[in-house]
């Protein structure tokens, strides 16, 4: 598996500090509740959220990455739960999460659309999604991310895929990304903070 190979080193290839956008966005939220981290890899974002007071469940297809996540949590003196699972078959518990985090989670479009429908239903009323990903414009920059534009996403696509959520923050722009060896340089990203309305419960 490519991700096991990528994570199979003592180095944290995306660093041990949280994603910059996640750090900023969480600063405006209550620091409690259940948080689900999708495609969490080596654990930098999950550990950060645990440090903020969240009860964190981290999901990734790579057991190697999640083992490093557990080690990082121990080093930082916090606890996270981990689950090895492919997101193409993973099922998000409905109305169970105060926060869902998707940072550079690049999947085939059909898988992503299905997952995002589950994200909408998986949030508790009042719960939020924090997402950052590369847009297809990233291909011309070559500073990280997939080599296939179909794995990336645009804000227009996300507005459709996340129908049912209210977007509190939404933009596509270019920023400096310095998150480990594999995400370094000028990047083209889409960022979203979206909330499930309090009246949106079935």
From TrEMBL:
It comes from the Bacteria. Keywords: Methyltransferase, Transferase. Residues 36-127 form the Methyltransferase domain. GO terms for molecular function: methyltransferase activity. One of its GO terms (biological process) is methylation. The keyword Isomerase does not apply. This is Methyltransferase type 11. It comes from Thioalkalivibrio nitratireducens (strain DSM 14787 / UNIQEM 213 / ALEN2).
